[in-house]
Write a structure and sequence with these properties.
Blueprint: E1 3-5, E2 8-10, H1 13-21, H2 25-29, H3 36-52, H4 56-76
Antiparallel strand pairs: 1-2
Length: about 100
C-alpha cells in the first residue's frame, strides 16, 4: 500500500513528517557539523516560518501525536499484566512471630 501526501509519495518516516509539516527536518533539528553561520541562518529561517505561521507548533504537535499513536505498540511494546495473587499461598504481613 502506498501513502501520498499532497501528490507526493511517502517512502519513509522522514518523508511523512517533512511532507506533513511542509519543511525539512534538518531545519528544526540541525545538521551534524554545521558551522555557527549555518546554524544562525537555519535558526533565522525557522523563526521566520514560525512568525509567518502561528499555527505551525500546533500542526507539528499533531503530526507527532499521530505518529506516536500509529506506532504506539511498537514504540512502547506494551503488555497488559493482570494483578493476580497465586492461590494457596499465605500473604506475608511483616512483623515478628510471637
Amino acid at each position: 500500500m502506498r501513502t501520498y501526501i499532497g501528490g507526493h509519495q511517502v517512502v519513509s518516516d522522514t518523508d511523512f513528517v517533512e511532507l506533513a509539516l511542509g519543511t525539512p527536518l534538518d531545519l528544526w533539528l540541525g545538521v551534524e557539523g554545521e558551522s555557527e553561520m549555518e546554524r544562525a541562518a537555519r535558526e533565522d529561517a525557522a523563526r521566520d516560518i514560525l512568525a509567518d505561521n502561528p499555527d505551525f507548533i500546533d500542526r507539528m504537535s499533531q503530526v507527532a501525536a499521530e505518529a506516536i499513536e500509529a506506532r504506539a505498540p511498537e514504540l512502547f511494546n506494551v503488555t497488559l499484566l493482570l494483578a493476580r495473587r497465586p492461590s494457596g499461598r499465605r500473604q506475608y504481613r511483616g512483623g515478628v512471630a510471637a
